[in-house]
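hey m, so remember when u said the tokens were messed up on ur end? i reran from scratch. heres the input so u can diff it against urs
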Amino acid sequence: MNKRQSIKVLRRIVMGSILTLGYSACSPSHPDVADSATIKEAWDEFSNPSDSARTKVWWFHGETETTREGITADLEAYKRVGVGGVVYYDQVHGKGEHALPAFSAGWWEMLKFAASEAKRVGLSFEINLSNGYVAGGPWITKALSMQRLTASDTIIRGKQQFAAVLPVPGDDEFWDIAVLAFPVSQNQWMTNNSQRPKVTCNLPGVSAEDFFRKKSRLTTIPPQQSGKSVYINLDFETSFTARSITYRVSKRSKASTGAMNVPGAPADEFYGSSYVKQPPLGQLEVSDDGINYSKVCDLKPIYQAAASRWDQKTVSFPAVTGRYFRLNLHDWCLAGDQRPEMALGNVALSSRARIDQWEERAGFYSEYILKNLTPAYTDEEIIDPKTIVDLTSKMGTDGRLEWDVPEGDWVIMRFAHESTGGPSKHGRANLKGLECDKMSVEAVTTQWNNYAARMIDTLSTINLKPDGVIMDSHEAGAQNWTPGFEQEFLRRKGYDLFSYLPAMMGYIVGSVAETDAFLYDLRRTVADVISDNYFGTLQTLCNKADVDFTAQATGNGLSLVADNLQAKGRVQKPQGEFWAKHIHGSYDIKEASSAAHIYGKRIASAEAYTDAKFSQSLAELKNLADFAYAAQVNEFVVCASAYQPWLDKYPGSTGGGRHYCLNRNNTYWEYSRPFWDYQARCAGLMRKGMPVVDLCIYVGQNPPVKLLTYRLPEIPEGYDWDVCTSEALTTRMSAHGSEIALPDGMCYKMLVVQRNNDMPLHVLRHIAQLIEQGGVVYAPRPDSSASLKDKVDSVEYKKLVAQLWGKEDVVSGKRSVGKGTLYWGMPLAEALHQAGIRPDMGIVSGNTPTDKVYFAHRRLADADVYFINNHSPRPFKDEVALRTSLSNASYWDPVTGKRYGLPARLVAEGLHVNITLLPGESGFIVVSDDSQEELMLKPTRENERLEAIKGDWQVYFDPRWGGPGEVVFPVLTDWTKHADLGIRYYSGTAVYRKKINLGKAAANEELILRFDSLNSIGRVWLNGQEVSTVWCTPWEANLTPFVKNGENKLEIEVVNSLMNRMIGDASLPESKRLTYAYPEIAKSTDRLVPSGITGEVWLVRRFLQCIN
């Protein structure tokens, strides 16, 4: 469907359907509406936001020394501008010079003082779960750290009494699990290490043998010209049959699991922020004569998952025989790569049949699971599970095995688990350590008792118990084992995993399909245990301590094999994150709000404005906030605000070079109160009532699993949506009439199954039940369950598929089953139209990530509240159709705290509301039956008279910040274009002054001061009285109450970015600098940030019109 057809369908949905309008979270009779707030309560919150709705900050410590005066100054500054609370968080990205050791006497003294000062000034005070992130320390031994399976293998001849110590399965401390044996043909268990071919390389100065030795350090291949190959040759001197190749290689580019999913269209392949698809390293080739080579397979790259140490990959291929093999390495990086060299090692060319890229499928490395590319090996090439012999009881504690070996060749595999070595990150040096085991209640409790509990207990003894504990995203790689994992697996999946242990090391047991189905169950069990034993345990501990718990569980950088939606459902406040660089939004926060909705949580939290720079304005940050509110987020916690120990250094600590600029040393700080008030109004109102969301999209349950943009359907404009995985779908959702209902009062109009078609039997059963009971579902026809657990019920599976989709596989269709309806194949917009589900907001905008009107809907007891944001460079002016039976509309402006009337007319299909939004403007449409007669209409810039302010401006640049003092601007000019270096590199406040002749505004008229371009914030004064602070759209101040007839004295304090002064100072000796950054974050060659007033300043006389 092209865009024009989509718009036609949308208009048909908006205008053509007439339905009876229900008015509650689900329907008029639904008994469980969780929040029955009224419009009066909503206005009270909006006009006077509660402290709990105010944005908090992660207050990063550990980069510098700690001073009492710095603590007091920071906390008083937060309170002064309207921040609601702090999270005391030791996070260090620099050297941490002069920082107190964690848990030292001085550290405890400063923590207590900070908590007492926060209480004194009226800020909430929370703590982080760990020193740095995310949950580790020196108390986490290797046995309590993250674990993975490891194994050694030995091939022996049969018909002998074997007695020997088996090879050690790990490189370090390990714990035995099992010993298994199975028969093989010896020629199918060979590698280059056993056969010892002659190896050579055409690269001068490089030992070819180094690429094949088992060692920790890889061999570096220097950059090569495009098209030039590095050849690593193997001559076996006789025929050798290969089926797989394993290697370790340096990682390149961000992994898909670590890339932020951003708004965009459905696609065939993954895309995301900072993800760049990489080329192959080269090819494996084979030859009979050493001259003419043919391709065997591409050698695939490894991507950098968040802090993952795993760098091994296996590529499988059909059996190929030859005397000569070679690695033809070329063009392994893209043009412009900052690290064009390649490190390679531990290469093993093998005759063993293995699962293609088994390291990912077995959970050693977290990557989204795609189609299994393993060849269809014959029965002779794989392990028959019936022949596997358990020898565990025959091995002593010293590793010595005694066994009477049957006839034939046998492989003995010794399985153990070992620490992954995943470390905690970015904490104070003395408390760094290993990350705790994410599947072990003992390990998680040990972490809690040694860090958070100590802080809570200590502060509680002086009546300063923290309000909560927060938890950052996991970034320490994957794990696939824990002590007792075999019992967890048996309990959850109903079958023993021991005969499938070889599959966890990549070998094929039974068949490729059987092995892959087991690995699916393995990953699902890992994800379930992480949710229960990690996040569930932490929530239980927080409950016992009577503190709030906010957790990213597991986080956008999904380096664990986890289920993000399920994990977030285990915690009190699920949290996502949005970064300052994603100016068109990102979807990690959509997971947090979805988890809040599907698991009945009141708060959907967000790590906010991550890595914002001093160069970014508050207006730019507001753009990010607007996307988050439209995603139904209702709590912000800034990442981050760097603790400032000094009172006379600007910017002072830059958080190890990360900026962390939202602190008292930012030039904007004392002008930022409206920015924080804006957030409090939005968050407070977004907590009222119940969310209204039409679509719940089932994104599968194949870990690692999260919301992936490229797999989403094309969602027509005007419908909000959540995502879920199998647990919430099957345990919390039921049909309520034609809607999908949850026990907390949340309802959806349609369940949508995304294209990846991951539908195990219990999900299929539940979907069938929903449809039978009246639910509306849009889902592609599944082929089969991916779970080995479900294979015994394959007949039932096929029967259910035929019952729902029909016996014939039809590309597109609609079927009524029981009381409900199933749609598939057609565009989602068409299915919604056929189902009679009109948009919640009938609207037509640009509908692209860079030009779209976003909205979010909350339902109160007596009103509907729609947050609306014009994320577009152009104005939006149209009539929107709201799916409500209420009759009047008003506009609540969170920038000013004022409310206006909106023209509206009630028709059969809902309320049609006329609204105009400027570029970047956002606010709330509030619909009720309350009279709006006393309200003035929202200004539209139509009934206006404009006059440009002409003539010279007196501008004062403070000499203390390098300014020249008083100067004259005949034309309003960008400071960075000025010839005077004191103005070009000026940072801080400059005061524009001008006398203007004005007449007072007439009745029903306002006199407005409007800026074409204001870089970055202006505080307007008229006749010595403060008018307002102008910091975002609509870039204007209302002068009306302050005007006198005749001459008026206009002053505008304009504050710009601190970056320009730092850039100017970068070319000066330290003794002449006005700024001090620890560490430095600016270079003399950096681009200056546009500053000051440019373009015209307008006097606008605007006619006010009452709504009637």
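this time it looks ok to me. The chain has six domains: 43-140+422-688, 145-186+389-419, 190-351, 693-835, 841-928, 944-1103. if urs says something different then somethings off w ur setup not the seq
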